Every structure is written in structure tokens, then in C-alpha cells.
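Summary for the steering committee. The consortium agreed at its last meeting that each partner would contribute one worked example illustrating the joint modelling workflow. Our contribution is presented below. We chose a case with several input lines so that the handling of multiple components could be demonstrated. No manual editing was applied between input and output; the record is shown as generated.
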Amino acid sequence: MTETALYTRPQSLLDMDMFYCPGCGHGIVHKLIAELIDEFDLRGRTIAVAPVGCSVTAYDYLDVDFSESAHGRAPAVATGIKRARPDCFVFAYQGDGDLASIGMAEIIHAANRGENYTTIFINNTVYGMTGGQMAPTTLPGQKASTCPEGRDPVTTGYPIRICEMLNTLQAPAMIARTMVDSPANVRKTKQLLKKAFQCQLQGKGFSLVEILSPCPVYMRMEPKAAMEHVRKNVSAYFPVKVFRELATE
Amino acid sequence: MSKRVLTSGNEALAEGAIRAGCDCYFGYPITPQNELITYMAVHMPRLKRVFVQAESEVAAINMVYGAAAAGKRAMTSSSSPGISLKQEGISYLAGAELPALIVNVQRAGPGLGSIEPSQSDYWQATRGGGHGGYRVIVLAPYNAQEMHDQPALAFDLADKYRIPVMILSDGQIGQMMEPVVLREESPCPPPKPWALTGAKDRPHNIVRSYLPRAGLLEVHNKRLHAKYAQIEKNEVRAEASDLDDAKIMVVAYGTSARLAGGAIVQARKQGIAAGMLRPITLWPFPTAPIQSCLDRVKAVLVVELSAGQMVEDVRLAVTGKVPVHFFGRVGGGVPSIADVHEKIREVATSL
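What follows is the complete predicted structure of the assembly.
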């Protein structure tokens, strides 16, 4: 009898215990990124950007060159890196507070310039690292530490739909929203990330994949319920959709 | 043969940076430094180098951070209100030990202030400016030639010590036109094994300033401060003139040093033994060069386009051994040579 490994840890994923909370979506997405880096054989020319948020230490898990970035500034840092080293594969991994609040100017202008790098945008509708405060993506009525009675759109506005907003721009090559609520959608997410990688590798310009993801601790739910919440409620407000996609197979 | 041209200080600096091997320029418009970004917009693309007009000063400094992390010579330029916006990024550059050049063509403040020349950002420049307790090397040009020459020094120091370097100029030096001898350069930046290039056949490199594990950040800070001590030991630069027999030592940099120089000539004609110590590095501050004159000078006069900022460093150097006088104008006001001369006479009478 010979044993065949049907599944192994991707080479670009370091053999570390992740510090993310049980049921968090970051680990799933990290693994997909690592698999794609391996599949495209990109480890030797990848530079990633991790801005402030739970995933600021993503370099502890992903075995590629990494730069931290100040809160929200990942699109500017990625612009600097990609312009300096156009032959490298560059991606930024941003959360919703980072990208849609403090870094809104940077993401819009990087997208508008058509910067040829890839943004992986984790939308879990809440600030995680700082302890569950209201994000620009927090759903109406959702409780957070800075909206203890639930988000009131009258005083705090409505959740911002980033993909729809960026889709008004001419330059971006790919804009898509997906979610990691189930094995089937994890596979779909990987396919979309693959397209985004291809966009960059083919020199098409700016690509962004928004991934609806659970944060059980600050969604105040059990992990399974958080997955269901993403599927039923989060995706009801943020429709899962490919807005545009210019990569060729 | 070296070429001599008539040019503005801002353009002289831009050409100097290009000749010093600046690979990437990121900027945002603001007066009185616009000649600089405009020059870069024309010349960097022609040389197939990187020019990006950023959406903000905040974005520009973070683009510098990215390009510097990727191992390239990167710079940005701005003027006072814009430099305030860059402070977050400068703190991150300092924390992550990235080499970069930041140019401040100072204007008057606080707030929006005005576009007139000023030296009121001395504290901000020499005390780090952002959060966290760090240093940047600060160079102070006083004519168009030094505007042209200092980028090469700045990039070399930045690479040598892995530290951001600031050139602290002002609207007058940036705008005025003077003859400049263009540098012949063949820059050779040192190897940067720490840079992000893709982890081909090596462990991955990480550019970071976040050190959340207990004790690591203190170790990192101690290393930074040991580096700063080395810079204080090795990199002080100042120019002494007429100090051998001087009874009055004028300390001034940049535009103030030009005015003081003229005033000293006038004073000497009247038999007043005045001379000048002109700091070229504002940090590290030329403490020792000042102290070496204290056995013969009877008084020190500090001239600044501010209410008195550098004068604090001079007082720390003098430690009360002789009186330290101050003369300055604020809010964009620029004294005449006669004004400074009058102040030197006043100090002379007090001896």
C-alpha cells in the first residue's frame, strides 16, 4: 500500500498557529492566497502589503516579502512598490475599517489610476483589532461598541458599498464581491482571486476582490451562526457579484 | 567639464536629486515648492523613472515608503502644511528604518499661514515631527548650489544609516535664481539585502515597525537610539566664517545665514569682530563646533525667521557660558541686512 497525499499545506503558508479567533475568515483567505501563489509560482516575485488591522501580521503566516503599512495607506504603499518594481507581483490585504474609512482616499485614487496591483478586501462589517467598533460597513441595527444600541443610519449613515462605488471609475480592470460562508463559495472565491491575479499578471491594471467574511467575536455570534449571518444578512446588503473582469484565460 | 546654469533653488534641488540617483518621486502641489514637482514631472518620465502626482501629501509619503521598502531611492517634497500631513509616514519610515528624502520648502504658519519664507518648522524637523520619539537627519541649504548638492548627501546618509533625511529649505531659497554648477554624478547606492524584491532563493523579508511582543520594541528603540548616537558622533556639519578673532558669534542657517553674512561684513567695516557659525546639519546639531569657540567669543547672537527655535539648541550648547541673544522675524517677515546689522551693533555695545 502506498500513501498519496491528497491535500497538503500550501508551501507559501508558514507552519504557524494563527492567532485569529475561532471562526474568523482570515485563515481561509490566507490559505487561498498561499495556494494561488504556489499555483502561479509567484513566491520569488511577490511583495505584499499588510496595513493596520487584525491581519497586520499576515507576514507571520504568508512566506512572501511583506511590508506593513500605516492604517488605510496600503494602496499608496502598494503604488510605491509596484511603480518601483513593476516586475513584481504586488497585493494589498485590507480590512473594511482600513479600506472604507481611514483609507478611502487612497483606495479610490489607486483604483482611478488603474494601479496594476491586486487588493484583497476583507469585509466583516466591524473593527476587529481595536475591539469591535462600528465600521463604515456595519449593517443598520448591528450592535458594536461605538453604536451600542445598533447602528442608526440617521446619525451614522448607511454602510458603504465599495465595489459599487469603485465601479463608477473607468480604469479598474476587475471589481468583484464574494463570500467565504461555505465550501462552495470558498472555491468560488478562489476562482475570483485567480482572475484578479491574472489581471495583474496580464498588466490589465487595478483589481479588487471584496470578500464578505465572518467575525464571530464582534458579530457577537457562534462561528456557525456568523457564517449564516454573512450568507443571509451581510450579502443581502452587499450583493455577491462580479462587477467587471477583464482578464483573459 | 561641469556646466554652470542660472536656476531657481527648487529646480536646482530637483536636478540634484535626479543626478543623485533618485529613482522615484511622489509629490503633491503646494507653494512655494511647485517648481520642484513640476521639474520632476517633466524630467523623471524622460529618464524612465517614476513620477506620480499623489492624491494627497499623506499618499505621497506612503508611496515613498513603498518605493523605499522596495529598495529604491525615493523622495517627496512639500511645504510646511504638507509636511505636517506627512508626519505619520515619516514616523513609519523611521520605525521601519527606511531611507528616504523629504524636502520642506518652508512657508510661514501656523495653519495655512502664507507662502512667504519662514524657518518656523525647525522644531518639527529636528524633533522628529511625528509620534514615537525618533530622529531624522536634517540638512539646511543656504543657496541654490547647496540645494543642488545636498540631495546626493541626503541619499547617501539615508542609505548609510537607513534613516529618513530632510532637507529644510525655505520659500526664499527655493524661489530665487542663482548660478549653479551642475554635479557630475555616478551614484552607487549600497546593496540593500533587507529590501523587498520578491523572496527568490532566500527567506522572506519583512518591513515593519509593529513589534507587539513584550520587550522587542524596547530593544528596537535602543538600537535606533544607538544609531542616532553614531550619527551625532559622525555626521555634524557646519561652516565657520570669520570666527578666528570673533568676539560675537552669529549662529544662523539658510536664509537667515545669508542675511547675517551681509550684516557681519557691515559690522566688520565698523571694527566689530563678528563671525558666523552656520549649521549645515540641524540634526545632528553642531554643538561641539559652537562649544569650541566659547573660549574666545563674548556673546552669541542667533538669527532665525521664527520667534526663536534653534536658539534653544544654541543655549543647550552654550550652557550659560556667554550671553545668547536672539533676533528673529515671524509670520513671513524677513529682516533686512541693516536690521541684523543693527542687532549686531546692539550686542557689541553690551559687551
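Chain B is about 40% helix and 20% strand. Chain B touches chain A at residues 23-24, 26, 50, 52, 54-56, 58-60, 62-72, 74, 88-89, 92, 96, 196-201, 204-210, 212 (CB under 8 Å).
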